Amino acid sequence: MKKLTRKEEEIMNHFWDKGAMFVRELLEIYPEPKPHFNTLSTMVRTLEANGYVNHKAYGSTYQYYPVVSREEYAGSSFKGIVSSYFNNSYLNAVSSLVKEEKITVDELKELIDKIEKGK
After folding, report:
1. What does R_g of the chain's alpha carbons equal in angstroms?
2. Cα–Cα dist 105/95, whole Å
């Protein structure tokens, strides 16, 4: 799954929060100064070409909707980070969180307990 740019992720967050929308409805969400309609429309079509959204035609206008969930994207992004920065090792990633004190040993033990109970 291709990584989204910051602007593409912003657009996807709107789709994930609101569901199916026409580009003009998406445009209404933005505060002033709003992006140009054509710019936003091009970005949505790029998201469609990359498999993030699809559309339903209503005459000559399209209503777009997400086909990749926020959870699917987050999981894919995390997998990419682990692959790129931690030699494809989730153990290295978790070890880094412990070393950086982003997660405590007690939290790690709690996580292990949850995983073991879930099996």
Report:
1. 19
2. 10
Per-residue pLDDT of the chain (119 residues; tens, 9 = 90+): 788 999 999 999 999 999 999 999 999 999 999 999 999 999 999 999 999 999 999 999 999 999 999 999 988 767 767 777 788 787 887 888 888 888 888 888 888 888 888 75
CB 99 within 8 A of CB 58: no
In sequence order, the 6+-apart residues with CB closer than 8 A to the CB of 53 are 12, 15, 44, 47, 64, 65, 66, 67
**Residues 6 or more apart in contact with residue 40 via CB below 8 angstroms:** 11, 23, 26, 27
How is 37-49 classified by DSSP, letter by letter? HHHHHHHHHHHHH
**Tokens coding 87:** 């030699």
- 18-53: string of b/e by CB count within 10 Å (b at 16+)? eeebbbeebbeeeeeeeeeeeebbebbeebeeeebb
